[in-house]
Amino acid sequence: MTQAQGAPRSFQEIILRLQTYWASKGCAILQPYDMEVGAGTFHPATTLRALGSNAWAAAYVQPSRRPTDGRYGENPNRLQHYYQYQVLIKPSPPNLQDLYLGSLEAIGIDMELHDIRFVEDDWESPTLGAWGLGWEVWCDGMEVSQFTYFQQVGGHDCAPVSGELTYGLERLAMYVLGVDHVMDMPFNDPQSPTALKYGDIFKQTEEEYARWNFDVANTEVLLRHFEEAEAECAAILAQEHVDPKTGKRIIMAHPAYDQCIKASHMFNLLDARGVISVTERQAYIGRVRALAKQCADAFVLTEAGGFSGEDAA
Amino acid sequence: MPDLLIELFSEEIPARMQARAADDLKKKVTDGLVEAGLTYAGAATFSTPRRLTLALEGLLAESPTVREERKGPKVGAPDKAIEGFLRGAGVTRDDLEERETPKGAVYFATIEKAGRPAAEIIAEVLDTTIRNFPWPKSMRWGAGSLRWVRPLHSIICVLSSDEGAEVLPFEIEGIAADNTTFGHRFMAPAQITVSVFDDYAAQLKRAFVVLDPQERADAIWQDATNQAFASGLEVVEDKGLLAEVAGLVEWPVVLMGEIAEDFLGLPAEVLQTSMKEHQKFFSVKNAKTGRIERFITVANRETADNGATILAGNQKVLSARLADAKFFWENDLRVAKSETGMTAWTEKLSNVTFHNKLGTQAARIDRIAALAREIAPVVGADADLAEQAARVAKADLSSEMVYEFPELQGLMGRYYAEAAGLPQDVANACEAHYSPLGPSDDVPTEAVSVAVALADKIDTLTGFWAIDEKPTGSKDPFALRRAALGVIRLVLNNDARVALTEIFAKGYEGVNTADLLSFFHDRLKVFLRDQGIRHDVIDACIEMDSNDDLTLLVKRARALQDFLGTEDGVNLVQGFKRANNILTQAEEKDGVEYSYGADRKFASDDAENALFDALEGDGEAISTAIEAEDFAAAMGGLAALRQPIDAFFEAVQVNADNEIVRRNRLNLLSDIRKACGQVADLSKIEG
Fold first, then answer.
1. What is the dihedral of CA B410, B415, B418, B419, to 10 degrees?
2. DSSP letter for each residue of A91-138
3. How far, in Å, are A153, A238, A239, A240, A263 from residue A252 at the CA level?
4. Residue of B nearest to A97 (CA)
């Protein structure tokens, strides 16, 4: 394909270009969150930072896990572990669409040759108690990103509103690089002495995890972990706001939220094991949502959450 | 007279909302203007993904001055009263006019409400319109509090007349109206300055924006059919998709592409659904083979390579999508063809709740299977096959394909049942048992399908009746009216003789069968009314025995309706009613029921004797006909009674002085009632 500024040659080059681009637009380039999550949205840099009145601009790669999507590395497009690129800017700037289109050009998509479309797709995360309006962005009929104006997170209205961009990196990169099977995609520069393809790095892990996710993971242990995380989250949030040791006001919204993330991932694993019935499913989602909501409640009482007054407690 | 041009330019409006939004814009603005006294000659409205446009022609330049006359106090009234009146009317003493009235001289004031310039009114109306716009879903953005479907960027508000075009001063949440907009996002992104509507539309077209959604849809359809035709193929028509696609582009460019050979073996419905749902592609089929061989996509721009890159991209995406569909199809086929066959799927349904008070899908399937067995002999189906079909009919709900494309339920069931080597009747029932869905949907005719379709619907109806979740008013969340109509059409179209009450009793435990039957009768009335059968005719037939046998009921009703269309019919009903009224009054008065049978020996008049003859002969004929369900003959019997009844009333006084004669005549009337009553309850007939 013809490129506006030279074609990227590898998966990692596309990531690097996105990093450079969003850095140049004033975003803090964060690192991935160090826990298993289902999507980049779960990173506290999005979920929690979308709350409260403080301005925010961050971009990062987030490794994401969706156990049910495992295909033993055989499906050309589906992976149980993949990467998302996530941008969150609050308040959403008026030129966010143009900024976004600029990022596509930065990774080598020539606007003169491709057909970019904003197709209605309202986003909702029942587990995070969050929703927003926006689009899936199509490039020649392929969904390359989610574009969302967050309206609510953890049951709280977002004011100001954050603009969130999520790129499915593998799919986008496969398209830009003209690769048909994800495992064939060059991960680093194909000219480098040790040229590695995506499959060299992930084919085996996809197989291993698919087997574990679907057939081996100990459901009793997973269930116990779920319940422990749920209990720990509540226990953390039940602590006094003022730390008895330091005398400082320290609300532990982030540690509590880690437990929420953990519970959510345990639920995803249980789901992949096929041990959750349709009726139970709703109940589990409701339990994770309750945690997310309590974490959001706690976060807005913190400084990062825009809290400025004296804490009554 | 001035013209008004309004454009609300935003980020991409969902395709499904555009048409309605354009109408709402017109309605809200014109209603507001007219209410403020500003009338107009014509209004036109347009939408694209990025704009809603309203053009008004022949608008008043200002609202007319309104004069109102108000009657005040009498001349010479106390000053206080006069002052009060002046204050209320907002006039001075000099403005008052003295007028003679029958009650003496009275002050009158003429209050004038000056007209207001259009600009002022428009600004107010536009503000209200934007703030209260009825979007199905709206949002906030940035740090603002305004709500719109997606961020609103600019507003054109231009009032033009012979003197020129002026931008109306209007601002909402930091967006000031002006006379500028933007062309196509990629092909002509520069700002455009516009004046009147024609100039606006022409400039937009030069900037690669077709303003009129109908024009875009027409262009897409024409180009698509031309391209398909040139390849000897035809586009599968889909009006909903066409409207949607027209709402996704400002500058439609139609591209036709190939479907990779690998996927042509997928069922046509799967190809079509996958292409439509995921990619918004039209299907292009080979009319001879019925196979779907190509797709049509609509891009939003022209490119230097004539869409080659875009088409290649779309093709690639489609292949990935179809690879998924193929994966589901092959996995599902593997299950269907395995030793367990479709039962592997039915077993999974024991984890799926149908309704929390009605148990799991698996429990529901057990009930439907039992019911299908009961119904089978009545509709001429083999009971074993009906039960087998009922057991697999919902199995595809667990299949991967139906999980991905719920709208393919039933259809996939048929494919999989065929693959599993089940009897064709069973496979067909998997697809057909959901039918009929709507009032115009085809009704299954194969006996096994009919049995399962009836069992499915009757289980649903008896279940929801048993847990008291009946439809109320406009609320019918479980589509029970549709289910009942489905049963009605299945029974009638197949001439099935089903005693519904008995079947209901075998349905979900605890159902009130009489109540459910009366719900059916209500639905039947609605259904037959559409076919021109009078509701009173149906009421007259519902009163008869075996009214849960809908085929019989409708046969009777049709015959009666035909009969009532004849002179004999109309007069017979009159005669019957006369007899019935006299009889009812007498029975009430005397406190007895005259049903002993009349005795001919007390007959004194020729007409009376003739009626005896007629009732004996025709009464007999009517019962024979009814017995044979020959309602036309029964109506013929009634017709033959008309003349003797009329003649009887002409010649004879029922309430004779002689009590014996009177009673005998009343008994004779009772015989009329009885004879007619074999056919229908004619007392329900109106008029």
1. -130
2. SPPTTHHHHHHHHHHHTT--TTTS-EEEEE--EEETTTTEEEEEEEEE
3. 18, 10, 8, 10, 17
4. B11
Task: Nearest by CB to A135, from B12, B185, B323: name it.
Answer: B12
From residue B163, alpha-carbon distances to B1, B2, B14 in Å are 10, 9, 38
Residue % of chain B over a pLDDT of 90: 63
d(CA B451, CA B376): 5
A135 in contact with B, Cβ within 8 Å: yes
Query: Which tokens hold the place of B385?
Result: 């096959």
Interface test with B, best of A90, A117, A185, A278 (most B CBs within 10 A): A117
| Higher-confidence position of B616 and A4 | B616
Contacts of A113 in chain B (CB under 8 A): 303-305, 309-310
Six-digit token string for B594:
């005259």
User: Chain B within 8 Å of A284 (Cβ-Cβ)?
Assistant: no
Pairing of strands A28-29, A56-65: parallel
Q: Is B169 helix (H, G, I), strand (E, B) or coil?
A: coil
CB B573 within 8 A of CB B676: no
- Residue B235: helix, strand or coil by DSSP? strand
What chain A residue is nearest to B16 in terms of C-alpha separation? A120
Q: Which of residues 165-184 of A touch B (CB under 8 A)?
A: 175, 180
Structure tokens at B195: 């004046």
CB A76 within 8 A of CB B323: yes
Distances (CA, A) of B310 to A101, B113, B469: 17, 62, 52
In this structure, the dihedral spanned by the alpha carbons of residues B394, B398, B399 and B400, taken in order and rounded to 10 degrees, is 150
Q: Which residues contact B360 (CB under 8 A, 6 or more apart)?
A: B349, B350, B351, B352, B353, B354
What lies within 8 Å, CB to CB, of A264 at 6+ separation is A37, A38, A42, A127, A288
* pTM of the predicted structure, to 2 decimals: 0.79
Sorted by sequence, the CB contacts under 8 Å of residue B242 that are 6+ apart come out as B217, B220, B221, B282
Averaged pLDDT for residues A116-144? 94
Q: What is the DSSP letter of A40?
A: G
Contacts B153 to A, Cβ<8 Å: 94
CB contact (8 A) between residue B310 and residue A113: yes
CB burial of residue B262 (10 Å; 0-12, 13-18, 19+): exposed
CB distance B321 to B405 below 8 Å: no
What is d(CA A165, CA B576) in angstroms, rounded to the nearest whole number? Answer: 79
- Of A122, A170, A178, nearest to A150 (Cα)? A122
Q: Which two tokens stand for residue B13?
A: 């409006």
Report ipTM (2 d.p.). Answer: 0.93
Q: Which two tokens stand for residue A10?
A: 């590898």
User: What does the pLDDT look like over B273-319, one tens digit per residue?
Assistant: 989 988 999 999 999 988 999 999 999 999 999 999 999 999 988 98
